[in-house]
Amino acid sequence: MAPLSTLLINAAAVVAAAVAPSAADDTPAQCLHFEEALVGAIDIDPRMDSARGRSDAAKADALLAYSQYAPQIGLFAQVGLGDTLPLDQIRDDQVGIQGTVDLYTFGRRKHAQAEARALLEAAREGEEEAKVLVLRSVALSFLDVLRANALIELAKQELKIYERDARTVDDRLERQVITIADASQIRAREAVARADLRRAIAQRDAAAVRLEVLSGRKAACVDGISAADYLTYGTAELFLLPEEQAVDFAMGRSFTVKRAEASVDVAKARVRQANRANLPVLSANGFTLYEYDSDTGDFNEESRIGLTLRQELFAGGANRARRLRARSELRQAEADARLERISLEDQVRRALHRAIAAEDIRKALNVASSEANNQLKATERAYELNAVALTDLVIAVETYYGSAAREVNATNEYLTALVELYAALGTISQPL
Q1: Is the pLDDT of residue 19 over 60?
Q2: Residue 8: which of 379, 380, 391, 362 has the closest Cα?
Q3: CA dist 47 → 5, 63, 139, 211 (Å)
Q4: Maximum Cα–Cα distance across the chain
Q5: 214 phi, psi to nearest 5 deg
Q6: Are 10 and 222 a contacting pair, CB within 8 Å?
Q7: Residue 316 — left, alpha, or beta (φ > 0 → left; ψ -120 to 50 → alpha)?
């Protein structure tokens, strides 16, 4: 694969001193690396804590679903007085142990536990889904900083040319090599270039602030090579994949789709539970009771074991309402899952096309900027010899820096498309 744009990859180290004087002594090893920014975001982003909280809650719900059908054992004790006559008091203290267990629930237990497992799976997939969203955000922010740094370097180079020409304006006027209009044009171009540089620095500072907030790391200097290495590894093989195969791969990896499918399983389990809500429950129960005998002063023991059948005869339409609600939730969950699959296919196909096209465009613009640079150098030499007019120099400058800026933007578009593609494929966190 052809090397990425030199400006975009190396701009961080070159521009750091111009943008942030405090980072003037930074070496590339001290700059923020792409993977370091990703790890930092995972550590501090509240979305991860929220997803972990939902996962922990799902674990607790799963434990509750299993425990409610486990044997229930408890102790009981009672201290009391029985009055037969106004002056006669009889103690009837009791103490004992009792237990009950559902023997047969006609599928309630099975499907309640299936719902709990599906909820837990959905929460786990949701945690991974949140991780992908966090990594996508910080990756795009990192690329914004790299792009801004590259544009700053271009703006500095363009300003340097106009500053050099502006310093010779008075001399050229005295020699009548240029006109007053030419001199004004040079000074105007210098002012515009200075404003463009200031604007680029402001954009870079804003992008760096966002990156620092998302990653929790200082971003005065960022390492572009680490981003290129991380994002472009294996792209040659990736671009050769048929679209259908890429979509199938994404379907098997996407945490968003997995979460949606787990939600369907949850809804199906709830439907099955609702369909069994009016069925009986057969339970075994037993107890051992020790009751105080006031005549002897001892406790008499009584033990019993038996079976209980609980059958709800009329619930005022509550069971029918539960079934209707469960079925509507299932339809909604299935529709959401279909929508997620459609959205994922759309994301994968568009990102794949976008990345391939952006790489082709970047290569073409690399050739254009190289040729424009050659033209600019030749025009500068001719201008110094008074062989060409100022207008020719201005056109050459604008052609080169315009094509170079478009190359930077195309490279940024290429890397951004890769981030979107990896997020859709579920592989953006694979090296972590």
Answers
A1: no
A2: 362
A3: 34, 24, 16, 16
A4: 134
A5: -75, -35
A6: no
A7: left
Structure tokens at 42: 């995972």
Tens-place pLDDT, residues 228-256: 899 988 887 888 888 889 899 888 888 88
pLDDT of residue 80: 66
Distance CA 291, CA 299 (A): 5
Write out the two tokens for 341: 């699959």
415 close to 227: Cβ distance less than 8 angstroms: yes
The size of the chain, in residues, is 432
| CB contact at 8 A, 246 and 173 | no
The pTM (predicted TM-score) of the whole model is 0.77
- CA 11 vs. chain centroid, Å, equals 27
Q: 160 CB contacts (<8 Å, ≥6 apart)?
A: none
Position 38, amino acid: L
**317 - beta bridge partners?**
none
Nearest to 262, CA basis, from 45, 86, 116 = 116
Q: How far from 264 is each of 109, 127, 193, 279, 331, CA to CA, in Å?
A: 19, 17, 58, 24, 9
Q: Give CA torsion, residues 431, 16, 211, 353, to 10 deg.
A: -60
Selection from 408, 362, 405 nearest residue 2 by Cα: 362
Note the pLDDT tens digit of each residue in 55-98.
Answer: 898 888 888 888 888 888 888 787 766 555 554 566 667 788 98
CB 306 within 8 A of CB 287: no
Beta bridge partners of 145: none
SS3 string, the chain, reads CCCCCHHHHHHHHHHHHHHCHHHCCCCHHHCECHHHHHHHHHHHCHHHHHHHHHHHHHHHHHHHHHHCCCCEEEEEEECCEEEEECCEEEECCEEEEEEEEEEECCCHHHHHHHHHHHHHHHHHHHHHHHHHHHHHHHHHHHHHHHHHHHHHHHHHHHHHHHHHHHHCHHHHHHCCCCCHHHHHHHHHHHHHHHHHHHHHHHHHHHHHHHHHHHHCCCCCCECHHHHHHHHHCCHHHHHCCCHHHHHHHHHHHCHHHHHHHHHHHHHHHHHHHHHCCCCCEEEEEEEEEEEECCCCCCEEEEEEEEEEEECCCCCCCHHHHHHHHHHHHHHHHHHHHHHHHHHHHHHHHHHHHHHHHHHHHHHHHHHHHHHHHHHHHHHHHHHHCCCCCHHHHHHHHHHHHHHHHHHHHHHHHHHHHHHHHHHHHCCCCCCC
